[in-house]
Every structure is written in C-alpha cells, then in structure tokens.
Write a structure and sequence with these properties.
Layout: E1 19-30, E2 36-51, E3 56-66, H1 73-79, H2 91-112, E4 124-138, E5 141-151, E6 158-167, E7 172-173, H3 184-193, E8 203-204, E9 207-208, E10 226-228, E11 232-237, E12 250-255, H4 265-271
Amino acid sequence: MKNKVVVILLSGAFLLSACKKTGSKTIETKTESKSLEKFIVDSLKVNDSVKINDKLSINYASRVLVFPTLKDKALLDSIYYDKTGITDYSKQGLQSFLDKDKTEFYASVKEDSKEWISDIQNPQTWEAGSFMKLISQNDDFLQIEYLHTSYQGGAHGNYSFDARVFDLKNNKKLNLKDITTIPKARLEELLMKNIDKLPSGTTDSDGPVKNSDMLLVDVIPANKDFYFDEKNLYFHYSPYEIAAFAAGDIIIPVSWKELDGTINPEFKKRMKIN
C-alpha cells in the first residue's frame, strides 16, 4: 500500500459491512474585510472488507476531508501529503484514489499471504485505515489531525497521529518557526515540565499512571505534529515516539504565557494573543 498506514486495536471503528458515506458542513469565517465567506468542508468515507479464506479477512477504511473552495495546488499537495500519486483533489478525484488504494491494498495482502496463509491458526482480520479529522478553522488557519492505523497479525495493532496546520492566507503549511522563536533547549524543558498536564488515561492496579512514568526518552523533542487554540500550543506524540505503547498517544500543552516574548508578532496579532 503506497500511503502510510498503522494499526488499529479499535476494530469497532470499522463497520462489519462494507459502506461508503459522504458528509459535509460549512464553516463561516471572517475575512480581513469583516465580511463573511463560506469555507466548505466536505468528506468521503470508505469502509470495505474482503474474505480471503475461512481464517483471514481484510478490512480497509478511510475518511478523507474535501475542501472544494481551496484551489492552490501546492497547498493541496501538502494537505494530502500521505496520498502518494494523487493529482485530482476534487471529490470525484479523491473517491477514485480511495478506490484504487483499496484495490492495491487487497492485492498486496493477497499476494504476500500466499506462502503462509495456511499457517494461520485462528480467524483474524487484517486492517488498514487512514482518517482525516478537522481540528479547527479559525483566523485563516486550517488545522487537521491524521490518524493512520493498521493490523497485520501479532499481539496488537499499531496507530500513529500526525497534526498539520495550514495558513490559508498565505497558502502554505505552517512551521514551528512561524509561531515561535523559543530556543530548542528551553522548549524541551517546557515539554518535560508539562508532560503530565493532560492525564494519560492509563491505569494499573495502583490507579492512574502518569505519562512521565512511561517515558522512553530523557529529552522530549518538539516534533512537527503541533496545533493550537486560544490558550496553548499543543504537541502530539504517537505511541513509542517518546513513551511506552501503554501510554498511548500523548498531548503536551505549552501555554502562550510560557512562550511570551518569543511569539511571532504577525501570528500573535492574527490569534489575538494578549
């Protein structure tokens, strides 16, 4: 499969029957002229499965956001960075890509499984999923979360998150340097300091487990998977990226107050940060 996939423990997220759905919504956003402009967010959903034999089934699921009002090709290339080879970003074009991607995934698994499929002892379903989620669209910043899932045997599936912010005013992906000039070492200190600000959701026999108790690293680097709101800049880490799998994905907030004096003036003005 050409696009990035990772695992899913959440089999319930996939419907057992094959289905295709579409949905859309319209967001009203203020332009600089104070007039209202419609920003359209549409979507495509694919959930399908095929049975190879009595022991192995394959499930493919995807949710893709569609932005019919966005026309800049470079911006769209960046939004659909994980969809290798796509050239048509219309709803029809994205549907065609998903159908082709699903077919190629099925063919790949069928071919790869020929030599060992007879060794499978218990019935199982191999899965691949890719899901886009709108975090927000405010002040001409479009924020998207990408979840990649997969399972191809083993004790558990895997999953990973990406987060990207797009500057619709300048038609580009936003980089961390566009937000803050904070020194790398200082930001790493803040990330370590704030590691437990959001609960892990993990428990053991003694009760809740802190994120800091499951760390695999001595220094938490600032990754590229960030997003923000009116209060904080958030860094999103996938399982195994900085902590044990049991920790799940970890989100670390860094407040604008902690970044005071390092925030890009233009960004600060657009976000109305005091």
